[in-house]
Amino acid sequence: MSEQVRDAIVIGSGPAGYTAAIYLARAGYQPLVIAGAVTPGGQLVNTTEVENFPGFPQGVMGPDLMDQMREQAEHFGAEVEYDDVTAVDLSGPIKTVTTDGGEHYSARAILVTTGSNYRKLEVPGEREYGGRGVSYCATCDGFFFKDKPIVVVGGGDSAMTDADFLTRYGSSVTIIHRREGFRASKIMVERAKANSKINFILNTVVTQINGGPQGVESIDVKDTITGETRQLDANGVFIAIGHTPETGFLGGALDLDAEGYIVVDGASTRTSLPGVFAAGDAVDKIYRQAISAAGMGCRAALDAQDYLTELDAQA
Fold first, then answer.
1. Is residue 20 part of a domain?
2. What is its EC number (predicted)?
C-alpha cells in the first residue's frame, strides 16, 4: 500500500488522460497516471493513421501519437503505472483508488479519463465466435480474413474507416446499417462509397451469427422495413456500433446519466464530488474525437489545479 498522499491521480490514459497529465506535471503536481493494463493509450492504440489531429499534416499512427503524449507527460514528471483501477473511495478530502494488482493510492484530486468500451450487438453467436470471426478491432484482426468475405456492422465514422481498411484483406466488404442514413461524416461516407470493394446493405439488422469449428461462416439479417430475412456469407464480422462508457469501477461514487456517462457541472469538468474531475469519452457522448478529448483533458487539469490551489490557500 502506498503511504504517500499525492496531489493528483489520473485514472485512464488516451488523449484526455495524457493531456491532463502533461498540464498537471508542468504545473509541478507530479501526477500518477494509472493508464490501464491491457490498452494503455485508449482506443487510438488500435487505430492506424490519424489524419485529423492538428500538427501532423501527413497524419500520424494512433499508437505513435499516444506514445508521444505519454513521453511528454513523463518528461515533465508524470509517473505512469500500467494497471486497472477496480475500486475507489472518493469521499472526503483524501481520495483512494485500488488497482487490480492490489495497490492502493491516495490523492487530493482525482481525474477520471477512462474512456469507453465497444458496444455489443447482443445477438446469438456474437459471444460464441468472439475471436473466431467476430471482432471489434479492424486493425487488430483484419489480416486474418485475407480473401474472405467480411461484414462491418455500423453507420458511423468508425464503421466507414474499418470498412475502408478491411478492403486491403477481404474478398469483399459489406457495410450493414439499420437505417437509410449514416451518422458518419460526409467525407467518410463518400470515401467508402467510392471504394469499389465496399457494398452497402441498409435498413437491415444482424439477428444471428452462424459458424462451425473453423469460426464464423454466415450471418442472418432482417430488413427493418419489410421484415424479410436472409442469410449472408461472412467469415469476418466487425462490429462498430458505438461505445459504452468505462465507469462501472466507480461503484456509484459519482453521478452518472442514464447511459452511464459521468455527469459534469456545465462546461466544466467538475463531477458531483469535490476534488473529482472527469474528461474524455467517459463524459463526452457526442464528439468522441481525439482532439476534443485532449482539450477536455486540459480543462480537467486546469480545474484540478484551481481546486488544489484553493486547498493550499485554506491550509
1. yes
2. 1.8.1.9
Q: What is the pLDDT of residues 13-57, one digit of tens each?
A: 999 999 999 999 999 999 999 999 987 888 787 666 788 899 999
Same structural domain for residues 226 and 252? Answer: no
* Residue 111 located in a structural domain: yes
Q: How many whole angstroms separate alpha carbon 152 and alpha carbon 241?
A: 9
**Positions of E strands within 3-68:** 5-11, 32-34, 49-50, 60-61
pLDDT of residue 3: 64
Domain that holds residue 149: 134-239
Residues 214, 202 within the same domain: yes
What total number of domains does the chain contain? 2
Three-state DSSP class for residue 200: strand
Catalytic residue among 64, 89, 137, 220: 137
- The residue annotated as part of the active site, out of 7, 83, 84, 141, is 141
